[in-house]
Specification:
The chain is of the alpha/beta class. The protein is built from 27 helices and 15 strands. Strands 12-11-15-13-14 form a five-stranded mixed sheet, sandwiched between helices. A four-stranded mixed sheet has the order 2-1-3-4, covered by helices on one side. A hairpin with a 2-residue loop joins β3 and β4. The longest helix has 18 residues. 54% of the residues are buried. Bound molecules: flavin mononucleotide, iron/sulfur cluster and FE2/S2 (inorganic) cluster (FES). Flavin mononucleotide binds next to β8 and α23.
């Protein structure tokens, strides 16, 4: 799992770390007469601006539209957007350098994003990337990039070709993929994700979300209605908002996005009455290993819309937004069509089904940034800014989008609401276990024979999921470790396979249920490879706002690279463990912790293997004598001399590496744009 050459921080936006030319006049808002804008682009941007209470929210869709026209966010493209939106080019540049899907230098007409994150790497993604990059070399039309998790780990290793997901792929598929692309044919039609069915479930399993999910046409209103769709909304509108909320509270439904907070409680925190309140559906789904929301949105979009309509009624909210990650091209198209159908049928819009409740829903697309899944970063991004997390409190329920009280919930959480209204909150709470009620869609990926989404009652044994449903590791292999809740969760080992899969049991076992994504690593993979893959991901995704996260993710990558290069001693493990401890709890959001917790758990549980790796790598370099080097370190003052002093990460403003080597998205060190 060597890291493929990929854009690194700073290198993606050439010159981002050059000193600012203070003698240069800052570029102001271009005047309408100064800039000529193609009418179609102007029309699209103006239409998007009209959708939001604050027109700046249209900045990302506007840049995406300009990029489609110009091929990249060129100075001309930026100037045209700035002219229509009445903002400065610098403001738009600060966005273009933050989001991975916006190109800041000329790029080919076609984009091929190859996922090289953990679940794909475990199944050969790095060799796939090399093969596709080599096959496309010299073709200026094709922009091949290594990308972080694309939310399709069930078809790993995979690629997104101009937004179409294909997989599983092998290096030998590279030529056919590029041929199809060049000829303008559908790319590898047999391998397209759109054709994939959900994994088989055991007979008799009670499915609330995935029941009949592959029925042809379920994404249309007609089929959804035929199966009883929108009846829960009718039932809810016949009750008072308080009664609907009481059902959600009685269900004890815990959020499915990561933190596991009870949805009913969250709704009850919102102030009552008519005011500028918002509902935001978090469809950013970027946690490596997680692909359940993708399945739900793509196959049963009306279930999500019905959930949004009911939840907004319970919270007396009249404006909602679905923030869907930019890479989910197909899902965004399906959702847009479902939204139009639901509006036409009177399930959304003014006076829904002749009730007094109205709801306007806007579909908003991100542009590639993991941090935008964090709720407060998502709100900033939705307001048309870089996705930087906000200081909490105030929590979004009190002060969120456009400063108004905001209910943010994950796709799966909201999609569960119609089932709760249909069966009643108390009956729902009887499923699962006491503190983890209901069913959960669990994404299983990595070294298992049947990767996919499985809906199951919370509290069943983890072994049943990994071995019973997903088929366990390939023949002859054993589970080495597994992440129970996406790549941010501390790893568990084979000894934990009988732990019940629910929020509290996972916590007691030293990990967390998180987004409900299990990644299995078998005994063929060195733990160092897993750690390095993860650390590089978090370094790339750190927004760079706080020092422990920005520097700590970078230090960790460097230390792991030192180990691999044979330049480390076991003392480096102590230093690395200490760096993780200094990150945890010292950051504005938990992205830093999301790296520190799993890396810390790997050092704790696989220390012997790390030490062997250090020793072997040193032997390869002819530096074998560890006792001597540890003795030399002791002579220099011992471990304490080499550990960062307590609070050093938090206090240090200085970077440890050359410009561009920090964790953090480009531009985080250049000051406000
Ligand atoms: C770094 C980071 C990334 C996150 N990514 C997502 C995500 O992609 N989708 C999601 O629903 N929640 C994500 N969350 C959790 C959200 O902050 C928030 O807790 C969630 O959207 C609330 O919805 P829920 O209560 O329905 O789970 C993330 C949190 C962090 C710290
Ligand atoms: S912890 Fe990392 S991602 Fe979160 S605000 Fe700080 S720097 Fe940004
Ligand atoms: S799609 Fe590759 S790791 Fe998720």
């Amino acid at each position: 799992m060597n890291a493929p050459p990929r854009f690194a921080h700073g290198s993606r936006a050439p010159g981002w770390d050059k000193p600012v030319d203070l003698a240069k006049e800052p570029a102001g808002v271009p005047g309408p007469a100064q800039v000529e804008v193609p009418p179609q682009l102007r029309e699209e941007i103006e239409a998007r601006m009209a959708e939001y209470p604050e027109p700046r929210s249209a900045a990302l869709p506007a840049l995406a539209a300009a990029q489609r026209l110009h091929g990249w966010c060129s100075p001309q493209a930026i100037e045209q957007v700035a002219g229509v939106m009445r903002v400065t080019p610098a403001y738009l540049e600060s966005l273009a350098t933050f989001y991975d899907m916006l190109e800041t230098s000329p790029a080919g007409r076609h984009s091929v994003y190859v996922c090289t994150n953990i679940s794909c790497s475990l199944r050969g993604a790095d060799a796939l990337f090399d093969a596709i990059a080599a096959a496309a070399e010299g073709d200026p039309d094709v922009n091949v990039r290594a990308f972080e998790c694309l939310g399709a780990c069930d078809i790993a290793p995979m690629a997104s070709v101009d937004g179409t997901y294909v997989g599983p792929l092998e290096p030998g598929d590279a030529a056919a993929l590029l041929e199809d692309l060049g000829a303008g044919r559908p790319v590898l039609p047999e391998r397209q994700l759109a054709r994939r069915h959900v994994a088989e479930h055991a007979d008799g399993a009670e499915l609330l979300l995935l029941e009949g999910i592959d029925e042809p046409g379920l994404a249309t209103r007609a089929v959804y209605e035929r199966r009883g769709g929108y009846q829960s909304l009718r039932r809810a509108l016949a009750m008072s908002p308080e009664e609907v909320l009481a059902q959600i509270e009685a269900s004890s439904l815990r959020g499915r996005g990561g933190a596991g907070f009870q949805m009913g409680k969250k709704v009850s925190f919102l102030p009552h009455g008519a005011m500028r309140k918002y509902l935001v559906c978090n469809a950013d789904e970027s946690e490596p290993g997680t692909f359940k929301d993708r399945e739900l949105m793509q196959k049963s979009p009306h279930m999500l819309l019905e959930g949004i309509a009911i939840a907004s009624y319970a919270a007396e909210i009249t404006r909602a937004f679905i923030y869907v990650r930019g890479e989910y091209e197909l899902q965004a198209r399906v959702l847009a069509a479902a939204l139009a159908e639901a509006r036409d049928a009177g399930y959304l819009g003014e006076r829904i089904l002749d009730s007094h409740h109205s709801l306007d829903v806007v579909l908003h697309r991100g542009a590639g940034a993991y941090i935008c899944g964090e709720e407060s970063a998502l709100l900033d991004s939705l307001e048309g800014k870089r996705g930087n997390p906000r200081l909490k409190p105030p929590f979004p329920a009190i002060q969120g989008l456009y400063q108004g009280p905001t209910l943010i919930n994950n796709v799966e959480t909201l999609a569960t609401v119609p089932a709760i209204i249909r069966m009643g909150g108390e009956r729902y709470a009887q499923l699962g276990v006491e503190t983890s009620t209901g069913t959960k869609v669990v994404s299983v990926s990595g070294h298992v024979q049947r990767p996919g989404n499985y809906e199951l009652p919370l509290g069943i044994s983890s072994r049943e999921i990994i071995y019973g449903l997903a088929g366990g590791p390939p023949a002859g292999r054993e589970v080495k470790c597994w992440f129970p809740g996406g790549s941010s969760a501390p790893v568990l080992t084979a000894a934990d396979l009988d732990v019940p899969y629910d929020f509290d049991s996972m916590g007691k076992a030293g990990s967390m249920l998180g987004s409900g994504a299990i990644i299995v690593v078998d005994d063929s993979t060195p733990i160092l490879d897993v750690a390095l893959k993860l650390a590089r991901f978090y370094r790339h995704e750190s927004c760079g706002k706080c020092t422990p996260c920005r520097e700590g993710t970078n230090w960790t990558v460097k230390m792991l690279e030192r180990i691999d290069a044979g330049e480390a001693t076991p003392m480096d493990l102590e230093i690395m463990a200490s760096v993780q401890e200094h990150i945890i709890g010292n950051c504005l959001c938990v992205l830093g912790d999301a790296m520190a917790m799993p890396i810390g758990s790997m050092i704790e549980k696989f220390r012997d293997e790390f030490e062997q790796h250090i020793e072997r790598a040193r032997e390869r370099r002819g530096l074998g004598d560890l006792a001597a080097s540890d003795g030399a370190l002791a002579a220099q003052g011992g471990l304490e001399e080499h550990l960062p002093p307590a609070g050093a990460l938090a206090a240090s403003g200085a970077g440890s590496g050359a410009p561009g080597e920090h964790g953090g998205r480009p531009g985080t060190q250049k000051g406000g744009a």
